[in-house]
Structures are given as structure tokens and as C-alpha cells.
Amino acid sequence: MPRPDWTTDDFFDHYNDPDHHEDVSLDQIGLLDDFRSSPEIQALIEDLKSYYGDKMKGLLQQACADCPTANTASVAYNAHEKDLDYDFHGRSRKDVLFVMGLGQLYSKGPCNAILNCKTGQFTGKCDLQFYVRDAFANPWDVFKNKFPFPIETGYPYKIRGDWDQTLSW
């Protein structure tokens, strides 16, 4: 099992070690909190919050319009259709999160919301499971401008991270 508090070198060492092919959990190596609290991921979560909030508001506003005598409308919604692309390539190569490169952040979970049809007051929440499924597969691709040919060394492995988070409006 990988040790906690990994650095960029640890990702490369794991990649180059023929005896270690196991997946790496961001939580086990001490990077999950850094990953999920990074500005890149926080911006994506804010975008996701706006997306689901707007989606639920639209459904609720339509329900209020369809029934003009209603005082409130409610919706239960299973969120899962929006995957988010992240990019850590803008970071220094010495920054350990740089190794996450380009990837996707996934989320799923139940959402519930209520709209007061008379006042327009909206409240809601989504209890989401976030998860990232990435791989450390070809770390030398960052040098593709210097080497016009692929450099294939090492042993690719998967990187994963999971957490629960509630978004509220």
C-alpha cells in the first residue's frame, strides 16, 4: 500500500517500479483534501452548483406556471448527467497536483428543492458523491514538444479519489 504524503517524485517512482502496479487512492497518499480544495476543483463545483440549481429552478418555475393556484412546487431530481473536465497543467511541475494533468470529475446523487410560487423563494440541496478516475500512464507526454516520438517506460496505474459533499441553495 502506498505511504501517505506523496510528492511528485513518488508518482514517478511508483510508475517506474516493476513491483508496484496497484491503484493509488488520493486519500491514502494524503492528497484528497488538497485535490478537492484546489481552486481548479472548487471552481468546477461552483459551476456544478449553478448548473443543478438552475436546472431545478427551471423545473420548479414550470411547475408553478402549469398550476397558477399552487403556493409551492417541489422537485426530487437524481443528478448525474454533468461530468466536469479539470486541468492541473497550469501548475508548476514541482507542485504535486500537476501530476493529475487533465481529467474528469464525476458526481451523482439525489437533489431536492422547493420553490414558493408566490414569492419566488428557492431552497434546495444535492447530496453528491464526487469521484475522480484518472491514471498515471504516460508522464513523459509533458515533454512532447521536445521529443516528437512517444516515450513509453514504466508501469501505468490508476489514480482515484472519492468524497461526499452537499450543495445547498
User: What is the number of domains?
Assistant: 1
Q: Provide the structure class.
A: alpha+beta
Strand content: 25-35%
Q: N-to-C SSE series?
A: HEHHEEEEE
- So what's the overall shape? elongated
- What's the end-to-end separation, in Å? 40 Å
Query: What percent of residues adopt helix (DSSP H or I)?
Result: 25-40%
Detail the poorly predicted runs. Answer: none
Average pLDDT metric:
89
Radius of gyration from the alpha-carbon trace, in angstroms: 21 Å
E-strand count? 6
Number of helices: 3
Main beta sheet: 6 strands, mixed
Description of the structure:
By secondary structure, this protein is of the alpha+beta class. It has one domain (28-134, 157-168). It contains three helices and six strands. The protein has helices at residues 8-16, 32-37, 39-66, and strands at residues 24-25, 72-79, 84-87, 102-116, 122-136, 157-168. Strands 1, 2, 3, 4, 5 and 6 form a six-stranded mixed beta sheet that branches. A hairpin with a 5-residue loop joins strand 4 (102-116) and strand 5 (122-136). The model has no long low-confidence stretch (mean pLDDT 89).
Can you lay out the helices and strands and say which pair or pack?
Elements: H1 8-16, E1 24-25, H2 32-37, H3 39-66, E2 72-79, E3 84-87, E4 102-116, E5 122-136, E6 157-168
Parallel strand pairs: 1-6
Antiparallel strand pairs: 2-4, 3-4, 4-5, 5-6
